[in-house]
Amino acid sequence: MSEKKYVYFFGEGDASMKVLLGGKGANLSEMTRIGLPVPPGFTISTEACNHYYKNNQQWPEGLEEEIKQHLSRLEKEVGKKLGDANDPLLVSVRSGAPVSMPGMMDTILNLGLNDQSVEGLAKLTGDKRFAYDCYRRFIQMFGNVVMGIEHDKFEAILDEVKEEVGAKLDTELDADALKKVINRYKELYRKETGEDFPQEPYQQLKRAINAVFESWNNKRAITYRRINRIPEEWGTAVNVQTMVFGNMGFDSGTGVGFTRNPSTGEKEYYGEYLLNAQGEDVVAGIRTPKPIKEMAQDLPQAFEDLKKVYQVLEEHYRDMQDFEFTIERGKLYLLQTRTGKRTTQAAVKIAVDMVKEGLIDKKTAVTRIDADQLNQLLHPQIDRSQPLKVLAKGLPASPGAAYGKVVFEADKAEELGNNGEKVILVRPETTPDDIHGVVAAQGVLTSRGGMTSHAAVVARGMGKPCVAGCEAIKIDLAKGMFSVNSTVVKEGDYITIDGGVGEVILGQVKTIPPQLSGDFQVLLSWADEIRKLGVRANADTPADAQKALEFGAQGIGLCRTEHMFMAPDRLPAMQRMIMAQTVEERKEALAKIEPMQKEDFKGIFKVMEEKPVTIRLIDPPLHEFLPKLEDLLVEVATLRAKGVTGKELEEKENLLKIVKNLNEANPMLGLRGCRLGILYPEIVEMQVRAIMEAACELTKEGVKVIPEIMIPLVGHRNEIKVLKEQLDQVAQEVIDQYGVTISYSFGTMIEVPRAALVADQIAEDAEFFSFGTNDLTQMTFGYSRDDAEGKFLFVYEEKKILEDDPFQVIDQEGVGQLMRMGVEKGRKTRPNLKCGICGEHGGEPRSVKFCHSIGLNYVSCSPFRVPLARLAAAQAVIEEEKKK
Hints:
By secondary structure, the chain is of the alpha/beta class. The protein is built from 35 helices and 33 strands. It has an eight-stranded mixed beta sheet. Helix 18 (518-530) packs across helix 35 (866-883). The chain is elongated and about 105 Å long.
């Protein structure tokens, strides 16, 4: 026998062993240790699963002997034997990954039943109906999970028998009817697999264990791991646990509980249960369960026991728990607990409340929030001032409002979603196989299932609105439609769902931005106390700047002046400037733009009073402000074909000539940024004059302004040297003219790889660096972003050539090393050099943490990502402290 240990009896492990025992196994051991009522069992470790995959689906040496030893111990502990004809031990076989993957892998219940032991169970319990119900469930689960027989084929047989005997619900089938179901299930099994349903219990167990191992690599599990960045090499554990039965009558039941409301975070007895049912009936959404508070009437003693469990779990784990339970003839058993998935709104409230209750400290509270999910709090809500046609109301399973075209199949949702269309996935209930459709949809609507159904749990985790258990809608999948009373909604029609209140509304409905809670502000204030990294926003208008301030921005890290030129009232003047034949003509056109630029800057400076504002001088090539070459060629050809002559044709031909002259083979690497300023200095001189006049006028009004002027695309020390000397002179002239004192600075964007390599030289003139990581990534990889993201990056991610899209997450090994080098070299020349980042990476949590690690002073991102950056910056400090 191998010396390596693969199997652990419940109580041998603890909650810290999640990587080895999986989350479920580790917590079953932990609950056993603290005395909670857990049915006994054992866990086969993730190491066994990994060996299985690395060795052609073979078990490691010694595993079978360990399983038999632990099975023997389990039989002694409960006084029953697996497969015994008179008093059979029945077990469940469940998966358990190191992190929660709800519904993604497989479970088999009632294992150990066969044609003999089912009769023993019937005699022992005095309830034939119960015994046969367990057996038919086992055949169905084993057939589906182990042998791959479609679930719907079993359900069709069940529906067929219900119709024959006139039953509406499964619970109305008597023992004889269930016998009929069992016989037909076995016929289906034989037809689909070519073999009889296995009767030897240990062989059932072996095959079930293998099926759970196999489920680690099913399609839905792979998709879930990719979305949630769960390592493939972790594998799943397998939990073999003594069965307890919630389907032994109406003094029995099964349910799911949360120690706090996973949607709102309120501290309440939250969850759902079904009487006379087994666990899959609740989570599969096949029957709509009751709210857990109603258990006080149905099973009062069990509810009192359950209330104690709520308290023990929270005090022990110091976090909101999601647990499964079964009540067998009035006695409560816990089947698992895990840290509960929750909306971000709930996560924030729970974290803040737990600090107030003394369960956790502020730093723990800050780490409890997934920074990536903060945008859930920024979900739009429905504007209730407009007339609404509410079709139906279901359960408010995941907050937020969304509209889209109705689709009934996950594949169709994925297809339309990938083409940029907004869709709402409408299903009777979702299953784990629908996950790709949920990912692509704006929201999910189901006619069955509760607040803890698959659709609800997955949608909450993804921050998508979900309305579940909306029984008023009658779905006809064959016809591609659903109806509510006399209203028919077809596939392709628009609906809106409000997951916060559970409403289904006809058509596209106007939404309004959300209001952030007081708890949200409290949590971010704790993050601000902890973080070292400043957080600014990218903003081009006073409205953007105001929004940035509301979200806690400490300045503007990027104001793009070219966006101001694109306004309809300015574009003609900009185009006249580009088409000018002489410097004088160009200056004349610029003189008309300058007052507009000045007013733009005044508006932003006024909003950001006393905070730094980094303004990037013109960056894109000039042809971007003119009509496209292809469009002009068509227009000129059309005019000529129609015989048009004179001024109209001459103007178009002149414009075409200029566009042709400005046209570049590779504009990304052409005449743009600082190169444009060097060739046409009058453009950037106008911009600096507008910036400084705006600053001087506001200073005279008593407004403190801190302008930072950024010269883009510098790759050589002489580029910034020439431009800084020239523009500094313009700035000083304006200051002298107004007779005020202003603290201003010139810096550059580090977006050309050469700039990072010679950062020590560039820092002789640059007073600050801002890493433009969008362009830096393009130039470092040699990728055109628009082409790469549309054509091959997704393949690179699927094939694991790249772990992440480098335009979404900073490539730390390549682009990141250039950034690190730029900071270190720049500060050797100028020790107090301010360094920041202004690409959208500045609002991506892992990238923010990297920016902290290389010593940047600040990150800058879009206003709506500022809260996320504030939180991620604090988490970076906490993670760094833990490593010391």
